[in-house]
C-alpha cells in the first residue's frame, strides 16, 4: 500500500547464530526463517481448486512430511472440501482424504499454479510449497516460500509494472523489513502473514525482470533504528502533499515516522479525489456511532472544514477522529475539505491511504528525478539506516 530514504552508509551485519535451516537472528532477538508462511487467497472461503506444478515435481506428503505420492509438472490435482475435511482427486480418483496435507517441491526449483473454481478469482502462480489445512469449516492454503521470492511477489502486487528500478529497490527493502517485523502477526493461526493489505498484498510470484533485479540487488537489506532494531516501514499510495505522524493515527509516537511536506506526489493519480455525503448520513453516523450531536456552532465548523495542512479530528472538540469518518464512508484519505450545499456535503480530498510513512507515488516521482534509494528512505523514515543481513556460512 505502499518507500524509504536514508543517506547513511549501508552496513553489513554477520550474525553467528546461523543454523542448518539458515535461521538468522537480529540484534532485537527476532528469528528470521529461511522461508515465510503466507496464507494465500485470504478472505475467500474456497471450496474447490486445482493445483498444478508449473516447474519441478511435487511430493504429496502427510503433515509429518511422509511421502504419500508425487505429481509431475503440468499434471493437475483437484482439491475439494467435504463435511469432514477435504479430498484430493487425480484423474477423478480420490488419492487422499483428511484435514492436513503438504505439497512439497521435490526439485531444485519449484513453482505451481492454483486455480479456484468459479469465476470471481483468477488463477495464480507461486514459488515454493503449500500446506492445505481444514479448519473451522474451511480450507486454508499456506504458501511456504523463500523470503526473497515473497518480497519479489509482494513488490509486484504492491507496486505494479513499469516503475523506475530505484523505486523497486526501495519497495523491496521496506517490504522485506515490514514482513520480518510482523512475522508474529498471525502466529496463533499457524502462519506468519496473510496476503491482504492487512499485512501486505501478495498475489503470487513476480513475472517482472526489473523487480527480480531490484530484489537481488537489495538482498537481505532492511531498515533499522539507532538500536539496530527493525523499524515499522509502513507505506501508503499517496500522502496528498503531507505525511502523518504515527501518533496522530496510532497509539505510539515513532521518531522515524514524522510528518513531512512532500510535493513530489501532487501530480500523481492518487493526489486528489472528490465525494459527496448527505447531511442525513453524517448526522446518523455521528449520533449512532459516536453518540455525538453537534450544536449549531459545531455544525458550522464541520460544514466549513478546511485542511490546508493536516488535522486529525472532524470537530474542534476532538469528539470524532477523521480516521473513523474515512472508514465509515469509504474515503480515500482523512485529508479533505468540506463545502455544504442544499443539505449535501461535498468533500475535496487529497491523497490515498493512511498517510503514515512512505508515500509510494512520491517515492516513484523522486526515483524518476534521480533520487537514490538511500535518499528516498531517509526522507520518509527519519533517524533510520540500512543493514544487510548476511548469514555466516558454516562448513
Mean pLDDT: 91
**Main beta-sheet annotation:** 7 strands, mixed
| Computed CA radius of gyration, to the nearest angstrom | 24 Å
Distance from first to last alpha carbon: 41 Å
What count of helical segments does DSSP give? 8
Count of all domains: 3
- Oligomeric state as shown: single chain
Task: State the share of residues found in helices, binned by percent.
Answer: 10-25%
Structural class: alpha+beta
Sequence stretches where pLDDT stays below 50 over 5 or more residues: 1-23
- Please indicate the percent range of residues in DSSP E strands (runs of 2 or more): 25-35%
Number of strands: 23
| Shape label | globular
What this model shows, in words?
This protein has 3 domains: 1-43 and 147-271 and 352-395, no CATH class; 47-120, no CATH class; 273-350, no CATH class. 21% of the residues lie in helices and 30% in strands. It contains 8 helices and 23 strands. Helix 2 (165-181) packs across helix 8 (373-380). The radius of gyration is 24 Å and the shape is globular. The two termini are 41 Å apart. The model is unreliable at 1-23 (pLDDT under 50).
Amino acid at each position: 500500500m505502499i518507500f524509504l530514504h536514508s543517506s547513511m552508509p549501508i552496513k553489513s551485519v554477520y550474525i553467528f547464530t546461523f543454523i542448518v535451516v539458515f535461521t538468522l537472528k537480529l540484534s532485537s532477538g527476532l528469528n528470521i526463517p529461511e522461508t515465510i508462511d503466507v496464507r494465500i487467497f485470504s478472505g475467500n472461503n474456497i471450496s474447490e481448486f486445482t493445483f498444478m506444478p508449473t516447474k519441478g515435481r511435487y511430493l504429496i506428503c502427510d503433515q509429518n512430511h511422509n511421502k504419500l505420492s508425487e505429481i509431475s509438472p503440468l499434471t493437475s490435482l483437484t482439491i475439494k472440501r467435504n463435511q469432514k475435511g477435504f479430498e484430493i482427486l487425480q484423474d477423478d480418483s480420490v488419492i487422499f482424504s483428511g484435514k492436513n496435507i503438504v505439497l512439497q517441491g521435490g526439485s531444485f526449483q519449484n513453482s505451481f499454479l492454483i486455480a479456484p473454481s468459479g469465476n470471481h478469482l483468477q488463477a495464480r502462480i507461486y514459488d515454493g510449497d503449500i500446506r492445505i489445512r481444514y479448519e473451522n469449516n474451511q480450507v486454508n492454503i499456506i504458501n511456504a516460500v523463500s523470503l526473497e521470492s515473497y518480497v519479489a511477489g509482494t513488490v509486484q502486487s504492491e507496486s505494479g509494472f513499469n516503475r523506475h528500478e530505484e523505486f523497486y529497490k526501495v519497495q523491496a527493502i521496506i517490504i522485506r523489513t515490514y514482513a520480518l517485523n510482523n512475522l508474529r502477526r498471525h502466529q496463533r493461526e499457524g502462519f506468519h502473514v496473510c496476503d491482504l493489505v492487512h499485512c501486505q498484498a501478495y498475489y503470487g510470484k513476480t513475472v517482472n525482470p526489473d523487480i527480480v533485479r531490484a530484489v537481488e540487488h537489495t538482498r537481505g537489506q532492511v531498515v533499522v533504528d539507532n538500536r539496530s532494531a527493525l523499524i515499522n516501514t509502513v507505506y501508503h499510495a499517496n500522502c496528498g502533499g503531507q505525511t502523518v505522524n504515527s501518533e496522530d493515527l496510532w497509539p505510539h509516537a515513532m521518531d522515524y515516522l514524522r510528518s513531512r511536506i512532500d510535493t513530489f506526489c501532487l501530480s500523481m493519480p492518487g493526489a486528489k479525489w472528490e465525494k459527496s455525503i448527505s447531511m442525513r448520513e453524517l448526522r446518523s453516523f455521528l449520533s449512532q456511532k459516536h453518540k455525538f450531536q453537534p450544536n449549531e456552532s459545531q455544525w458550522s465548523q464541520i460544514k466549513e472544514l478546511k485542511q490546508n495542512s493536516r488535522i486529525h479530528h472532524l470537530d474542534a472538540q476532538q469528539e470524532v477522529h477523521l480516521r473513523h469518518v474515512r472508514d465509515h464512508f469509504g474515503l480515500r484519505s482523512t485529508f479533505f475539505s468540506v463545502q455544504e450545499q442544499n443539505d449535501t456535503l461535498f468533500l475535496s480530498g487529497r491523497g490515498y491511504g493512511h498517510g503514515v510513512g512512505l508515500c509510494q507515488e512520491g517515492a516513484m516521482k523522486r526515483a524518476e528525478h534521480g533520487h537514490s534509494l538511500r535518499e528516498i528512505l531517509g526522507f520518509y523514515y527519519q533517524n533510520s539506516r540500512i543493514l544487510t543481513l548476511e548469514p555466516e556460512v558454516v562448513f
